[in-house]
TrEMBL record:
It holds the Pfam family PaaA_PaaC. The lineage of its organism: Bacteria, Bacillati, Actinomycetota, Actinomycetes, Streptosporangiales. This is 1,2-phenylacetyl-CoA epoxidase subunit A. InterPro entries: Aromatic_CoA_ox/epox, Ferritin-like, Ferritin-like_SF, PaaA, PaaA_PaaC.
Length: 323
């Protein structure tokens, strides 16, 4: 994965070229020289993003067999399939940095790479399908739209398509919640209960406060990241509060109020100790998510073996001119 060693003078020239590309806000492409730390940071970030898409299929997949109507089932199936697609684009983007899909999977399964902590929370009612679309995909959009302009070409291009699909995910979630809010008292209570559970974990999706996010400054200097965690969290809150009002739900934060001076909403502090615990593997579903992912990987072994055998035979036939 590391670049080939180069002479100091040559290295300086390459570094200057890289810096100039970043300064022009141009893209770095797979064959361009890049510093090892830049490559490592990107592998970590893109892999974590890919793993999140794949693990993120589990909480909602939990409800596919119990969707309340054919229409809801079709929407949910399409959404969960999109997430699989996002994982695949991102694994492909990551492979252009010189790491294989098998290595990335192994790093997820061994716990050396992480996925977003939001997917370690359970989905307890069908309202959670709506809340995840509205809040979790909504937060993902805030995080991901700036990534369409990220400095690494394959990542930025993958993000453009992903963002288009994420906005469908957010809309279908909001539409589901709106339908439930127009329904019975029981349905309204179900929505409120779901929003109460997902609000704070959604705010945690932007990562720790800027003061405690040591890698952020470097990622911003490299143009990998375009906005700080706190900026994006504020943007999400400002975007979401009017949507909550239109929906008729209460966001579970007594400190939430409009601040005319700042022209932003003030809001309370998420429980960062809970965030740390979930990151350490102690969230409500960490063990279950990993066990399920591991079992799916083992169950799929025959597909990988068959595909490898087929590729080898095809290559053999091509050599012998057999069609
Ligand atoms: Fe996605
Ligand atoms: Fe999504």
């Amino acid at each position: 994965m590391a670049a080939t060693p180069v002479e100091p003078a040559e290295r300086e020239r390459l570094q200057a070229g890289f810096d100039a590309t970043i300064a022009r806000a141009d893209r770095i492409e797979p064959r361009d020289w890049m510093p090892d730390d830049y490559r490592r940071t990107l592998v970590r970030q893109i892999a974590q993003h890919a793993h999140s898409e794949i693990i993120g299929m589990q909480p909602e997949g939990n409800w596919i067999g119990r969707a309340p109507s054919l229409r809801r089932k079709a929407i949910l199936l399409a959404k969960v399939q999109d997430e699989a697609g996002h994982g695949l684009y991102l694994y492909s983007a990551c492979e252009t940095l010189g790491v294989s899909r098998a290595e990335l999977t192994e790093m997820l399964l061994s716990g050396r790479q992480k996925y977003s902590s939001i997917f370690n929370y359970p989905t307890l009612s069908y309202a959670d399908v709506g809340t995840i679309g509205w809040l979790v995909d909504g937060a993902a959009i805030c995080n991901q739209v700036p990534l369409c302009r990220t400095s690494y070409g394959p990542y930025g291009r993958a993000m453009i398509r992903i963002c288009k699909e994420e906005s469908f995910h957010q809309r279908q979630g909001y539409e589901l919640l709106m339908t439930m809010m127009r329904g019975t008292d029981g349905q309204r209570a179900m929505v409120q209960e779901s929003v109460d559970r997902f609000w704070w974990p959604s705010l945690m999706m932007f990562g720790p406060p800027d003061a405690e996010s040591p890698n952020s400054a470097r990622s911003m200097a490299w143009g990998v990241k375009r906005n700080s965690n706190d900026e994006l969290r504020q943007k999400f809150v400002d975007m979401t509060v009017p949507q909550a009002e239109a929906l008729g739900v209460t966001l579970p934060d007594p400190a939430l109020r409009w601040n005319a001076e700042r022209a932003h909403y003030d809001f309370g502090e998420p429980d960062w100790e809970e965030f740390a615990q979930v990151l350490r593997g102690n969230g409500p579903c960490n063990a279950q998510r990993m066990a399920h992912r591991r079992a799916a990987h083992e169950d799929g072994a025959w597909v990988r073996e068959a595909a490898t055998a087929f590729a080898a035979r095809t290559a053999e036939n091509a050599k012998e001119g057999v069609r």
